[in-house]
Design brief:
- The protein is an alpha+beta fold.
- Helices cover 38% and strands 27% of the residues.
- It has helices at 63-66, 69-75, 80-107, 122-144, 164-173; strands spanning 3-8, 28-44, 47-62, 147-152, 156-161.
- α2 (69-75) packs across α4 (122-144) and α3 packs across α4 (122-144).
- The structure holds zinc ion (ZN).
- The site of zinc ion (ZN) has 8 residues, from β3 and α1.
Amino acid sequence: MAKKVSVDVDAPILWPMCCARCGVNEGLTSSRVSIGSVRSVGPSPFGVQITSTMAMLDYPVCHAHATGLGFAGIVTRRTLLFRFLRGFIYFIAILGVPVFLMMAARAVGVASTPHNAQPSPMVFIAMFAAGIAAAAYLVHAFRALPVRLVGQSSDTVTIRFGNDAYAVKFIAQNRKSLREVPWWKKFVV
Ligand SMILES: [Zn+2]
């Protein structure tokens, strides 16, 4: 079970000095996670003004586990744009899976090819293949990230830890900065 911890956004965070993934304490580097949210939408002299904030945290990981985390941290961001892109990718992948299953079934002769069937245009095949590959990558990225920012209120960020032992150390070191976030506050954008 992954642990979730909410901390005060303005408080200094003390990261346990070991890899957030495997716990080794040598050869550490840092990786960044971020979360963005729209804080307010209101009228302004220039039309509508949208205030958004981006919270960013750098946490320690060993070199072996740092590989690819920067990119994984970006594509798993909880911002509107990335949520939309991820939704689009999953949609394409879900459409693509039956297409490939059908092609495979026809290739091995389980399903027969209708006489008047047109071969699917390569561009669609390529798009479905790319969608499935991207969706598989996203699943991998979410699993690989040892630290993710999964929530934000006006004064807290919620951190999700993949490694329980690391979460326990983090909680012990940051007692003063921990916040209980009431459920209603999580709706504050
Ligand atoms: Zn590591």
